Amino acid sequence: NTYGPADASYQAAGGIDGLRRLVADFYRLMDERPEAAKLRSLHAESLEQASDKLACFLSGWLGGPKLYSEKYGAIAIPAFHAQWPISEQLSQSWLSCMQQAIALQPYPAAFAEYLLAQLRVPARRRSDRSNALRPNAGRRRCLLSSRTARGFSGSP
To answer: Are 36 and 93 in contact (CB under 8 A)?
Structure first.
C-alpha cells in the first residue's frame, strides 16, 4: 500500500490545509444532517475547538506533524471517548458524515477508500467497547494488526 509509509497519507490528504478542509466539511455535514443530530448534540455549540483538535489529531495520525500533542498535550483516545456512550448508531453516524466529507475532497479514489477503511477501525473499536459495557449487547471482536492498532502512519 502506498499510503501507509511515513507521511504518504498526510501528503495525500493535502497536509494540514487539506485536513482542515476535510474536518470543516465533516462538521458542516454533522450540522446539516438530521440523522446526525444525536451525534452533534455531544459537541459544544461552537465546533471551532473540536475542528482544530480533529485536524491536529489527524495530522499526526496520518504521519504528519504531531500537532495535537504540540498544542493540546498527549491524548489517550479510549479514555477521551469514554466520556460519551458511543453506540453503534453514533459510530455509524460519525462514519457516514466522514464518508461524505471524504467524498467532497479532491482525493484520488484509492486514497479516499484507504482513509475511510482506516477510520472505520477505531470507530468500530470504540463502538465495540461501549457495547461491551452493556450486559446483553451483541459483541463482536475487531482483530487488529499491530500496524493498524498503532494508526496507519507506520509510526509506533
So the answer is: yes
Cell representation of residue 23:
474536518
DSSP 8-class letter at 73: -
* Separation of alpha carbons 3 and 92, rounded Å: 24
CB 69 within 8 A of CB 37: no
Q: Measured in Å, how far apart are the chain's first and last C-alpha atoms?
A: 18
**46-78 per-position pLDDT tens digit:** 999 999 999 999 999 999 999 999 999 988 776
Distance CA 22, CA 54 (A): 10
Backbone angles phi, psi at 56, to 5 degrees: -65, -40
Instruction: Say how far apart CA 13 and CA 150 lie, in whole Å.
Output: 19
19 contacts 59 by C-beta, under 8 angstroms: yes
pTM of structure = 0.76
Give the integer Cα–Cα distance in Å for 38 and 133.
20
Greatest alpha-carbon pair distance for the chain in Å reads 44
